[in-house]
Design goal:
Radius of gyration: 39 Å
Helix content: over 70%
Oligomer: single chain
Shape: elongated
Number of strands: 0
Largest sheet: none
Number of helices: 13
């Protein structure tokens, strides 16, 4: 039965949460497991006492069967005791919830009476003029306020009962599992992860931040590094939860895909930057060579020779002029990206400028095959970067939409929840 969502005017949230019917279903499941364990324990004991087998292997088989039978007996005893405590807790929880529900009904009735007797502005002025009793002194309102206070007292009694019974059954369950059957450190660790609700909360918060950063990285790839780091942290938490049976392996697979997308998006953005830097270096060398060649041609056209001391000085000047031209090209200001070019780069102005710079260099030196290749590759990497970030964002938003609106999606994730085998377990 669904719990009330609105607990006004008593409290903001459900003070006695829980699902008694769900607990009873789990008790029924545990009962079946206990019966199977009892049957298997008897079968193991029968194997251990079998006289038809002879030899060393038979003795070893008997010892192992006898030991396994004892452990099955212990496990069956645990299930039998714990299911009894859970059944009692379900009954007491249901009792507390009924009492809280009655208190809520009484409170809502009282509040309706109070609201119905609230005066309007005209009646307030009339009361002052005639000297009639204030609305709060109306007998019906007074009784309603008393009923509301009584409802609060009833609710507090139900909450106190709920807490006391929860502590009682928690102690009973702890006592029931305190037996000769020792859990491995892995079982203890899985229980710790299961109790660490903050891990799931942290993963959700970081995932929300990563979603925003991933979307922003479509336009500003520099944020991609931070998005990739946070994606890796979320992946680690989801992996830990999945390994211990407290989370879905579907989340792990999704994280791997998102992390790969983020990594490739960052890689593509870095590739554009590296290509632009390489292009600047090539342009510097070409500008230097071109300046030297022009200087030599000018000297030759002017009849200035190249021999002797004067010739060496002129060649030195040519070289200096060439180097100056190369440095000027290398340190040239980045071309400003137009609004249209920035829009085509999905808002990433820096990347648009880098690609435009490479294209400018390729156009300036059309004979350079390498610059032409760099320009083509930079344009391609720009598209790759945006595509990866876009795909990563779609995956993330699609997963959130599935969690919120698709029971089939949620059930599929649940089907992929299973812990790894224990380490050091008696089993």
């Amino acid at each position: 039965m669904a719990r009330p969502a609105d607990w006004a005017p008593l409290t903001e949230t459900d003070p006695v949460p829980g699902d008694p019917d769900g607990i009873r279903r789990e008790v029924t499941h545990m009962k079946r497991i206990a019966e199977k364990l009892r049957t298997q324990a008897a079968a193991m004991q029968a194997i251990a006492e079998c006289d038809g087998l002879k030899g060393e292997y038979a003795d070893k088989l008997g010892d192992n069967a006898r030991g396994l039978g004892r452990r099955l007996d212990l496990a069956e005893d645990r299930y039998r005791k714990v299911k009894g405590h859970l059944n009692g807790w379900a009954d007491d929880m249901e009792d507390a919830q009924k009492r809280a529900g009655h208190a809520l009904d009484d409170a809502k009735d009282a509040q309706r009476t109070i609201d119905q007797h609230k005066p309007d502005s005209a009646s307030k002025g009339s009361d002052k003029d005639t000297g009639k009793d204030k609305p709060d002194e109306d007998p019906a309102v007074k009784r309603a306020r008393e009923d509301l206070e009584a409802a609060r007292t009833k609710l507090q009694s139900a909450v106190t009962f709920y807490g006391e019974r929860a502590d009682h059954y928690a102690g009973k369950i702890r006592s029931s599992i305190d037996d000769d059957m020792e859990d491995s450190w892995w079982n203890d660790f899985k229980a710790w992860v299961g109790d660490a609700d903050w891990l799931g909360t942290l993963a959700e918060v970081l995932s929300n931040i990563t979603t925003l950063l991933t979307f922003a990285a479509i336009f500003f790839p520099a944020l991609g590094v931070l998005a990739a780091i946070l994606t890796g942290i979320v992946f680690g938490i989801h992996l830990l939860m999945a390994l211990t049976g407290n989370g879905s392996w579907f989340d792990v697979v999704t994280d791997i895909a998102a992390f790969k997308m983020a990594k490739n998006g960052v890689k593509a953005a870095k590739a554009v930057k590296a290509l632009q830097k390489e292009g600047r270096g090539i342009s510097k060398d070409l500008a230097e060579q071109q300046a030297k060649r022009v200087a030599r041609m000018n000297r030759a056209a002017g009849g200035r020779g190249g021999s002797g001391r004067l010739g060496r000085l002129r060649r030195t000047a040519d070289n200096q002029q060439g180097r100056a031209a190369g440095v000027k090209t290398r340190d040239e200001a980045m071309p400003a990206a137009t609004r249209k070019e920035t829009y085509k780069a999905l808002g990433d102005k820096r990347m648009a400028e880098q690609v435009k710079d490479v294209e400018r260099m390729s156009g300036r030196y059309p004979d350079s095959l390498r610059l032409s290749e760099i320009a083509s590759e930079a344009a391609r990497q720009k598209g790759v970067s945006q595509a990866y970030w876009g795909t990563s964002t779609v995956l993330d938003l699609g997963g959130r939409a599935g969690d919120a609106w698709s029971p089939t999606y949620v059930n599929a994730k649940g089907d992929m929840t299973a812990p790894t085998a224990g380490f050091g377990s008696q089993w």
